[in-house]
Amino acid sequence: MAEKPNPLATGKPVYVVDGCRTPFLRAAGKPGPLRASDLALQSGRALLYRQPFRAAEIDQVIIGCVMPGPDEANIARIVALRLGCGEQVPAWTVQRNCASGMQALDSAAQEIASGRSDLILAGGVEAMSHAPILFDESMVEWLSLIRTARGPVARLRAFSRFRPRFLKPVVGLLRGLTDPTTGLSMGQTAEILAHQFAISREHMDMFALRSHQRLAHACEQGYLDEIEPVYGVDGSYFDSDTGLRGDSSMEKLAKLRPVFDAPFGKVTAGNSAQVTDGAAWLLLASEDAVAKHDLQVLAQIKDSQWAGLDPGRMGLGPVYATAPIMQRNNLDSGDVDFWEINEAFAAQVQACLAAWQDEEFCRVSLGLEKPFSAIDEQSLNVDGGGVSIGHPVGASGVRIVLHLVKTLQRTGRQRGVAALCIGGGQGGAMLLDRME
């Protein structure tokens, strides 16, 4: 693998000065109580209320979002205006599937590093429960015939062409979670990795159980203080993640049937990330903005990387994206204090851990002379991950960076890596250092 330069090392420093997120709300079979723009608005407003500057002093607003609603075109602009940033603050939306939020952070970091901006509100949001139900093309064509028919006879002839099968719905969420180039759902790609790295169903379920246990412990200890409460339009109130299964057990997980490769597969609803609604934000600043507004610096974004790979093995994206960062910065696994690897599937994270120290994989796929040392799982997703917290695809990239910063601050440790796999065969990663 040819080593590539790190633009963040040659540009102006990029600092994380604050951040927050909503509770992540597990979908309950119907549209959730808040739309994507509402989630972003409520959490963004809480973040800006505590800042020493006016919202209009932000240079840009950038949001990652995969499927905004029909009334949320360029959702970043809508939210920026509702936050009171004013008409003169530009705002734009980015989309990189599961890493859309991290793409927003990276885009903001590059803007600051280049000197074009000093203060950027960057985040990610998704309301997966509001994914649309669609008509298929036959129904659309029939409706077009009705609309264009001229005269009673033509309309009657058009109506006569209706068939009940036209009413079969197309579930937008399922289509969105299927790779159109391979025909594989994201869960099927996890099954491929489970087979490739011989990951057992028992080990997947153990990983999932640990995710819930760690999240429960974090809630008890107050480690999730980045969460800001949100209020639904129906008067509902949420101040914690709703996907936590405090009563989860190996026995209960073992009873769940495979979802993506029945009856012989290993990936179940219990060892997969949940369909979730949520938003997360970070405020990124330059040295000039920090000095001007007397801001507290939490961390510095030191490096970032994007990578492409086989879409059928998209879950290995964190390995492909993180390896160049480690090489550029002369790091091995033990030099990183905490890791946040988004838990799209238990099998996917476990495959990354296996590939990370697989000599043949690292030589053939990454071009490395030797593999990395094992990642200490006591430093990985220490307060739970997507399996327990949820994975609102546009927001997860921001959540893992935000919580990584919070974890470094809480523990006084120095360095962390956040990484995600990306549907379609990509990976993204960021290296951060805690600042005193």
Mean pLDDT: 94
Overall SS class: alpha+beta
For the report, how would you describe the main beta sheet?
A: 10 strands, mixed
Radius of gyration: 22 Å
CATH class of one domain: Alpha Beta
List the total number of helices: 16
First-last Cα distance: 34 Å
Oligomer: single chain
CATH T-level topology of one domain: Peroxisomal Thiolase, Chain A, domain 1
SSE order? HEEHEHEHEEHHEHHHEEHEHEHEHHHHEE
Overall spatial form = globular
Entry keywords:
single chain; alpha+beta; Peroxisomal Thiolase, Chain A, domain 1; ten-stranded mixed β-sheet; two-stranded antiparallel ribbon; globular
List the helices and strands and how they pair.
Blueprint: H1 7-10, E1 15-21, E2 25-26, H2 36-49, E3 60-64, H3 75-82, E4 91-94, H4 100-113, E5 119-127, E6 133-134, H5 137-148, H6 152-159, E7 170-171, H7 172-176, H8 186-196, H9 201-221, E8 230-231, E9 237-238, H10 250-254, E10 276-285, H11 287-293, E11 299-308, H12 317-328, E12 338-341, H13 346-356, H14 359-364, H15 386-389, H16 396-411, E13 415-422, E14 426-434
Parallel strand pairs: 3-4, 3-5, 12-13
Antiparallel strand pairs: 1-10, 1-11, 2-10, 5-10, 6-7, 8-9, 11-14, 13-14
Characterization of this structure:
This protein has helices at about 5-10, 35-50, 75-80, 100-115, 135-150, 150-160, 170-175, 185-195, 200-220, 250-255, 285-295, 315-330, 345-355, 360-365, 385-390, 395-410; strands at about 15-20, 25, 60-65, 90-95, 120-125, 135, 170, 230, 235-240, 275-285, 300-310, 340, 415-420, 425-435. Strands 1, 2, 3, 4, 5, 10, 11, 12, 13 and 14 form a ten-stranded mixed beta sheet that branches. The protein has a two-stranded antiparallel sheet with strand order 6-7. The protein starts with 6 loop residues before the first helix and ends with a strand. Among the domains are: about 135-170, no CATH class; about 185-220 and about 300-435, Peroxisomal Thiolase, Chain A, domain 1, CATH 3.40.47. The protein is globular, with a radius of gyration of 22 Å. The protein is of the alpha+beta class.
